[in-house]
């Protein structure tokens, strides 16, 4: 291998491996039915390997989805997902947390399909008090249709961190002191779905879903939940003291993680609402706190 290529590979390996894991414990693979239930189009979910793996099916009649049995206030949540392969234009594979209220909070991963040979786009968003408009979009540094990759959220009182294979791709800090709402008091369920959104998902709706390629399949495993379940007693999580995700080491990224986040921003970010002066002539308050990375 040429010295230059060797250095590039070494740099990538150092970047992708962190001194600080998103969770202090390795996720344990559990069957889908332990923590999740289908929510619609039950016949469009396929169960494999005793339910430790599932596939969501989208055809011209319907997509499908599932949700967690419990609601959670803070924690670490992850899925291993293999995206729809081939011509996936118009399709959206979503993994998100959401509360159930008129002024709901939400933490979103949305994977926007594309024409064959074009890269997937990963869109993230955060809703607070029913208001979103905090989109960021990146290209992934791998083909997400070839094998499983881990997508996870760390959510505590201090920050929300989006991870791809333990590489932080986005941080949303608690900026209540700046007058910015932060998700802190509404328990959320975890959801995932596969659906048709060809009115906006690919090139703003210019690329339509090619139904001759249906059915479209997204595969899942590793249904990891490590959070404070708030489903039974609405004050339970608030009275339990600090959990691991509230400890000091999880209240901010470390220097290595900030370097990884900077790498993602510089090489793979294609849209950031914080820099969109057409939509936001004044820089949103929470963006002013963002590190210059």
Automatic annotation (TrEMBL):
<keyword id="KW-1015">Disulfide bond</keyword>
<dbReference type="GO" id="GO:0042546">
    <property type="term" value="P:cell wall biogenesis"/>
</dbReference>
<dbReference type="GO" id="GO:0048046">
    <property type="term" value="C:apoplast"/>
</dbReference>
<dbReference type="InterPro" id="IPR044791">
    <property type="entry name" value="Beta-glucanase/XTH"/>
</dbReference>
<dbReference type="GO" id="GO:0016762">
    <property type="term" value="F:xyloglucan:xyloglucosyl transferase activity"/>
</dbReference>
<keyword id="KW-0732">Signal</keyword>
<keyword id="KW-0325">Glycoprotein</keyword>
<dbReference type="GO" id="GO:0010411">
    <property type="term" value="P:xyloglucan metabolic process"/>
</dbReference>
<dbReference type="GO" id="GO:0004553">
    <property type="term" value="F:hydrolase activity, hydrolyzing O-glycosyl compounds"/>
</dbReference>
<feature type="active site" description="Nucleophile">
    <location>
        <position position="106"/>
    </location>
</feature>
<feature type="domain" description="GH16">
    <location>
        <begin position="18"/>
        <end position="220"/>
    </location>
</feature>
<keyword id="KW-0808">Transferase</keyword>
<feature type="glycosylation site" description="N-linked (GlcNAc...) asparagine">
    <location>
        <position position="114"/>
    </location>
</feature>
<dbReference type="InterPro" id="IPR013320">
    <property type="entry name" value="ConA-like_dom_sf"/>
</dbReference>
<keyword id="KW-0961">Cell wall biogenesis/degradation</keyword>
<dbReference type="InterPro" id="IPR010713">
    <property type="entry name" value="XET_C"/>
</dbReference>
<comment type="similarity">
    <text>Belongs to the glycosyl hydrolase 16 family.</text>
</comment>
<dbReference type="InterPro" id="IPR000757">
    <property type="entry name" value="Beta-glucanase-like"/>
</dbReference>
<comment type="function">
    <text>Catalyzes xyloglucan endohydrolysis (XEH) and/or endotransglycosylation (XET). Cleaves and religates xyloglucan polymers, an essential constituent of the primary cell wall, and thereby participates in cell wall construction of growing tissues.</text>
</comment>
<keyword id="KW-0964">Secreted</keyword>
<dbReference type="InterPro" id="IPR016455">
    <property type="entry name" value="XTH"/>
</dbReference>
<keyword id="KW-0052">Apoplast</keyword>
<keyword id="KW-0378">Hydrolase</keyword>
<dbReference type="Pfam" id="PF00722">
    <property type="entry name" value="Glyco_hydro_16"/>
</dbReference>
<protein>
    <recommendedName>
        <fullName>Xyloglucan endotransglucosylase/hydrolase</fullName>
        <ecNumber>2.4.1.207</ecNumber>
    </recommendedName>
</protein>
<feature type="active site" description="Proton donor">
    <location>
        <position position="110"/>
    </location>
</feature>
<dbReference type="Pfam" id="PF06955">
    <property type="entry name" value="XET_C"/>
</dbReference>
<keyword id="KW-0326">Glycosidase</keyword>
<feature type="signal peptide">
    <location>
        <begin position="1"/>
        <end position="21"/>
    </location>
</feature>
<dbReference type="InterPro" id="IPR008263">
    <property type="entry name" value="GH16_AS"/>
</dbReference>
<dbReference type="GO" id="GO:0071555">
    <property type="term" value="P:cell wall organization"/>
</dbReference>
<keyword id="KW-0134">Cell wall</keyword>
